């Protein structure tokens, strides 16, 4: 009797088991994307550093796939992050500057990622994902008035936001030198002093009777002195209040922010987001404030590394990455979670001896298309889906995350022109070659360099049409300005272009010539043709949008959009008396 009952129940049990299996198999994967700010590829053990301790990041690489030619779409923050979020070169969204301004400079400016752009967070949100951004945004906030939040992360697909709507600046740390438009500050300061001296002189000669001075001239000089003082003091001396804030969703919860507890707060928020959403598909973008200046001095890590304060910060970064990975694993989510680790661009080598290290690669942050500013770490871990210890030595891009996430979330809806490609076939070993035959490198909005990977070849040819001038000549950076500029007398144009083969010469130290490279003329011809095709994609998009002013791409990094405007400034309290502190007693 018991055997007969088992025979009858067996099909039902198998059917129920198959349903459960199907439910598990059909469950959408989670995504944890972790990005460090200004970190050099040479800072990590898994990329060759033997003096910096990064065991948790190194373990991710051992347990997953490591990319050796992972490329940022720009060598500075705002355009690189815009390209990462949208899968498109920053120039398509207007997030590439024309002159000396390479990034958004003020939270109270009107520039930012346009609402017409679509981020991977928005695409996944439409697929039922809960999406969160913890940490740095730096893609704008308001457009026309305080609180319209047209560029806010919540408007770009992130269900939850906690962190820095702007970025971390030296100005955010009391007692440090400003890094905001330093030469403009000096000019305004000198103008203020000059007007003040002129006013004092006019009053003096009038009082002692040496010269009759018109009252209207004195009033004019006084008025101009006040205006010049305001233009210098307000937007520059109060940067720590205007730019250095923390928001939770659309509320300012700390102004100015307290740096000492910021790393632990960001980590706690990221861990809490994972725990809250463990039962449902989620996307977490953990965008660290490290290792942008000013560097942190967390007591648990201070003085512990062999590389000063920067090394201490890198080891703290590694600890934070380890904690996030540990949270995913402890909740039993590892086999259904793709973890990704990278940097937004290369290291800022002009920060001095305690700054980032870009290994063998030339240049760094804000130095156009030199490898040191655009080659970044790329690590993917997904147990059971991606083979452990795999190394991919093919050109890939931060822009590839957008189509990759779309594919994994089973989003098949039509999209705009994308410059990235789905990475899964390459990561899983189903194909051996990248779809990036050509990659284009921008210095602000100017096409600076191009790389070409010929089919069935180990060579990676790269041309530079112009290069930023190092100061002093032959040095490793632009020390006079802290950031290289991309126009005018600040660059050197090359005709013919500089040509390198990155396969034998990754440090770009030996330019090829017609005598040393038999394919020299063909390489330049093929790259020239690729540039024309690339430019045609912009023309095609512009033609499609020309019929609608609302869709026309406007440059978001012009002076009128990046400079501070009081009516756009987020404020905790009554403007201009802004100030509040987050309750951190639980930390």
Could you please describe the fold and organization of this structure?
The structure is a single chain. This protein is an alpha/beta fold and 587 residues long. It folds into two domains: 31-169 and 243-577, Alkaline Phosphatase, subunit A; 182-237. It has 14 helices and 16 strands. Strands 6-5-4-3-7-1-8-9-2-10 form a ten-stranded mixed sheet, with helices on both faces. A four-stranded antiparallel sheet has the order 11-12-13-14, with helices on one face. It has a two-stranded antiparallel ribbon with strand order 15-16. Strand 12 (446-452) and strand 13 (461-468) form a beta hairpin. Residues 1-25 have low confidence and may be disordered.
Question: Could you give a short description of this structure?
Answer:
The protein is of the alpha/beta class and 587 residues long. The protein has helices at 2-26, 55-63, 77-86, 120-126, 182-207, 215-237, 239-242, 262-276, 308-330, 371-374, 401-408, 424-427, 520-545, 559-562; strands at residues 30-36, 65-71, 130-136, 160-164, 246-248, 251-254, 282-287, 337-343, 375-381, 390-397, 438-443, 446-452, 461-468, 491-501, 573-574, 577-578. It has 2 domains: 31-169 and 243-577, Alkaline Phosphatase, subunit A; 182-237.
């Amino acid at each position: 009797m018991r055997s007969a009952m088992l025979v009858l129940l067996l099909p039902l049990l198998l059917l129920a088991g198959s349903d459960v299996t199907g439910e598990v198999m059909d469950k959408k994967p989670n995504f944890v994307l972790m990005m460090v700010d200004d970190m050099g590829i040479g800072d990590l053990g898994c990329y060759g550093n033997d003096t910096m301790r990064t065991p948790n990041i190194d373990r991710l690489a051992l347990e997953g796939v490591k990319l050796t030619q992972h490329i940022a779409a720009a060598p500075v923050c705002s355009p690189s992050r815009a390209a990462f979020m949208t899968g498109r070169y920053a120039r398509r969204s207007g997030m590439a500057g024309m002159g000396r301004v390479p990034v958004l400079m003020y939270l109270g400016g009107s520039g930012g990622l346009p609402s017409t752009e679509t981020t991977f967070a928005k695409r996944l949100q439409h697929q039922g994902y809960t999406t969160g951004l913890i940490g740095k945004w730096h893609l704008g906030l308001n457009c026309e008035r305080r609180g319209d939040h047209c560029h806010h992360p919540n408007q770009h697909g992130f269900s939850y936001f906690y962190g820095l709507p702007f970025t971390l600046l030296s100005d955010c740390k009391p007692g440090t030198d400003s890094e905001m438009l330093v030469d403009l500050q000096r000019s305004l300061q000198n103008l203020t002093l000059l007007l003040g001296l002129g006013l004092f002189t006019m009053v003096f000669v009038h009082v002692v009777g040496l010269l009759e001075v018109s009252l209207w001239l004195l009033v004019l000089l006084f008025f101009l002195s006040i205006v010049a003082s305001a233009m210098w003091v307000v937007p520059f001396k109060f940067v720590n209040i205007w730019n250095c804030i923390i928001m939770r969703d659309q509320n300012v919860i700390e102004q100015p922010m307290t740096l000492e507890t910021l790393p632990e707060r960001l980590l706690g928020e990221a861990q809490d987001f994972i725990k809250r959403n463990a039962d449902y598909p989620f996307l977490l973008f953990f965008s660290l404030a490290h290792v942008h200046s000013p560097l942190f001095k967390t007591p648990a890590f201070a003085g512990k590394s062999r590389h000063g304060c920067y090394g201490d910060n890198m080891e703290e970064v590694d600890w934070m990455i380890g904690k996030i990975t540990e949270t995913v694993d402890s909740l039993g989510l590892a086999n259904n979670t793709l973890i990704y680790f990278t940097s937004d661009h290369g290291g800022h080598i002009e920060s001095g001896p305690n700054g980032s290290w870009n290994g063998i690669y030339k240049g760094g942050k804000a130095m156009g298309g030199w490898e040191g500013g655009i080659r970044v770490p790329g690590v993917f871990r997904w147990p059971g889906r991606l083979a452990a210890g795999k190394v991919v030595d093919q050109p890939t891009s931060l822009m590839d995350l957008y189509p990759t996430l779309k594919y994994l979330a089973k989003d098949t809806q039509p999209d705009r022109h994308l410059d990235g490609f789905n990475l899964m076939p390459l990561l899983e070993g189903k194909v051996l070659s990248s779809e990036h035959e050509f990659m284009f490198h921008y210095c602000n909005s100017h096409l600076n360099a191009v790389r070409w990977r010929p089919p069935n070849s180990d060579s990676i040819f790269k041309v530079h049409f112009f290069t930023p001038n190092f100061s002093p000549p032959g040095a490793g950076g632009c020390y006079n300005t802290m950031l290289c500029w991309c126009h005018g007398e600040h660059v050197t144009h090359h005709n013919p272009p500089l040509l390198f083969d990155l396969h034998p010469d990754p440090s770009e130290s030996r330019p090829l010539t017609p005598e040393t490279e038999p394919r020299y003329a063909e390489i330049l011809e093929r790259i020239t043709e690729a540039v024309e095709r690339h430019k045609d994609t912009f023309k095609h998009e512009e033609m499609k949008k020309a019929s609608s002013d609302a869709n026309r791409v406007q440059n978001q990094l012009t002076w009128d959009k990046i400079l501070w405007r009081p009516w756009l400034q987020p404020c905790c309290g009554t403007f201009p008396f802004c100030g509040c502190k987050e309750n951190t007693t639980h930390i």
